[in-house]
Amino acid sequence: MVAFPQSNLPPKSQPWARGLEKTVTTNASNARSTAVSTNNNLKQINSSINLLQRQQDTLVQNQESLAIQQAYLNTFQTYLSENNTTQSTSLVAQWVTLSTISVTFTLTRDATVLIEAMAETSSSSTRDNGSTGGVDWKCTLANSGATYESQIGSRFTINTPGAYAVNTYLYEPSTNSKVLSLTAGTHTFTVTWSVYNYGNGGGCTTKKKIITATVVG
Amino acid sequence: MYKKSYLAPQSQPWGRAIEQEINETSALISQNKINSDNELRQMGSTVSLLNRNKNQLVLQQTSLEAQQDYLETLDTYTTSSPSVITINGTGDGSYPTLKILTAGYFYVSRAATIIVKTNCDTSSNTDSNLLLSVSLTGLDSILPPSNIIFYDARRLDRTTFNVIRALPGYQTIAYTSAINGDNRNTSVFKITTPGLYRAQFNVQAEMPVVGKYITASNAVLSATII
Q1: In sequence order, what E strands does chain B have?
Q2: Backbone φ, ψ for residue A60 (5° rounding)
Q3: What pLDDT digit, counting tens, does each position of B48-74 carry?
Q4: Residue contact B160–A169, C-beta within 8 A
Q5: What are the pLDDT digits (tens) for B90-149?
Q6: What residues 76-105 of chain A have any CB closer than 8 A to a CB of chain B?
């Protein structure tokens, strides 16, 4: 409370002077307390904003970490190529390359990849002399000069030579699979199916052909 | 600055004290306003930055959620039946079912490719025909189920020898094997309609003749959404 000097005003003006003093004093006091409370309020708001800012920083870091994790999980993809066209050959006594398909994929990191190839095959092999007939299938995976081969086959042998013909019908899946460590970058795997008919007649056919590359690690 | 008060000389100190108090109060209010304005301006700028960051966070969050939804669709559903089933031949020409494996119904929320892999060990002491079928069936609340049924079957006739011409007394051939072998199969189904789907693997075999048998075991089915 400010102590004003005596106003020494005429007695009639004294109430006015006291009223004036009171208003001035009250205003000064209000202004000081408003300054203090405004300052306190601003400090509180500032502290809330700082807290929000720290929380946002944490959220940004969490999101970045989630995005990195998701990008990693997203690398566990399966890449696929297929061809359902029927392809046939009637050539015998030689290896014949019948079907080829490829799958191309890009790895964003070094990864372990499972390559699987499968073809439905059907074939017939005919012999009309006492000897061995049958069919062999080769499924060859190739990538950057490296090849990986798998082979299946079925043979039949005529026990008693004579003048007859035997036809054998074979329906088998020709498959190949490989787990490989691959570096980041683009890779192309080509799979080729070849067939050898040991008979002197018949035909060999591939139908559904599939190659998949699955990132497994 | 106030105008001259024309107060009596003895009242002048009082008048100046009043003026001084009013001046100090005004100065305090002005300074307070300046300080508050500055503080608020800084806060406003920080809040705008936070708001921009928040919008960025919301966008990033939406993108993460979409990516998460996508990742959650990259599921594999598997089922297996390791038990050995033996069918003793009756020679009735039927194709009894040895194994049925079903995965699903599982929900696919987007257009997707589904790779169904199957395998089953089989053995027999005779030649037989093996019928393996893989199917993907879709159920949807809008389209009738029959509109989105897929079917893919493969018939494996293993070393089925057929004597097409034999002279009397010359019909002996050596059967190389029964139906032991590789039954692995991969089928690819492309779906365009989100909904519930079921993958099924059926193993059937031609009924052997009396005295012969056929077994099936270790049947597996996996349906992978890519």
Answers
A1: 76-81, 85-88, 97-108, 112-124, 129-139, 149-157, 160-165, 185-191, 195-205, 213-225
A2: -60, -45
A3: 999 999 999 999 999 999 999 999 999
A4: yes
A5: 989 888 999 999 998 899 989 898 898 988 888 877 766 777 778 787 776 444 443 333
A6: 76-78, 80, 82
Distances A25 to A19, A32, A36, B30, B191 between C-alpha atoms, Å: 10, 11, 17, 17, 83
Greatest alpha-carbon span in chain A: 155
Q: For residue range A204-213, what is the model confidence (pLDDT) as tens digits?
A: 999 889 999 9
Q: How far is CA A42 from CA A35, A67, B88, in A?
A: 10, 36, 89
Please give the backbone phi and psi of residue A49, each rounded to the nearest 5 degrees, phi first: -65, -40
**Inter-chain contact A166–B163, Cβ cutoff 8 Å?**
yes
The answer to whether the CB atoms of A165 and B184 lie below 8 A apart is no
Instruction: Name chain B contacts of A159, Cβ cutoff 8 Å.
Output: 172-174
- The type of residue at B206 is E
Question: What is the distance in angstroms between the Cα of B65 and the nearest Cα belonging to chain A?
Answer: 10
d(CA A101, CA B52): 50
Query: Do the beta carbons of residue B137 and residue B165 sit within 8 Å?
Result: no
3-state helix, strand, coil in chain B (%, to 5): 30, 40, 30
